[in-house]
Design brief:
The protein is α/β, with parallel strands linked by helices. It has helices at residues 6-14, 29-40, 50-56, 77-82, 99-112, 129-134, 150-159; strands at 2-4, 18-23, 44-47, 65-69, 89-94, 116-120, 144-147, 163-166, 184-189. It folds into two domains: 2-69, 60s Ribosomal Protein L30, Chain: A (2-Layer Sandwich), CATH 3.30.1330.30; 77-189, 3-Layer(aba) Sandwich (Alpha/beta knot), CATH 3.40.1280. 33% of the residues lie in helices and 22% in strands. Helix 1 packs parallel to helix 2.
Length: 194
Amino acid sequence: MIIYGINPVLEALRARRVRSLRVSARADKRVQEILRLAAAAAVRVQPVDAAELERISRGGLHQGVAAEVEEAPDYDVADLVRTSGRAPLVVVLDGIEDPHNFGAILRVADAAGVDGVIRQTRRAAAIDGVAAKASAGAIAHVRIASVVNIARAIEDLKAANVWTIGLAGDAPDEYTDLDLTLPTALVLGAEGRD
């Protein structure tokens, strides 16, 4: 997978997932940090012109850097629950198709310390450079389980004694009233559809 932009590339380097790096801008001090991390990890760096970065980022805002990264490990629902080390907190995405929304959710999930995100393989935003850019690099750190059937994944969570809570904008209760010290899965999605 190709990712681009300073934060996504930095975080992928920190997660040790970068195979190779392409750079056109070297003046920025954050690009210098990228180059230092790449050298420390023995990642091959290829100087390219901006047009090459435009091509491989498909017109995305590359900020002078792009990287080929290893695919993320393939997790399943049980992995997310079993390896938590505490009461698991999982986010379940149902019908999130916009890669910018997907990336924003990953960014918040990473900041909130969730144990993983479950997403559907069909009718869902791709795990790609657009989502990586929108996640500001969080995609390199959040464990993602891709499933065929969200309803089955929710049943698996329930069987593992994880409370599943659907989020809705018109709900009378606030999310801050939830006891997240219990094993919890927050289900969100549908991007405005009724």
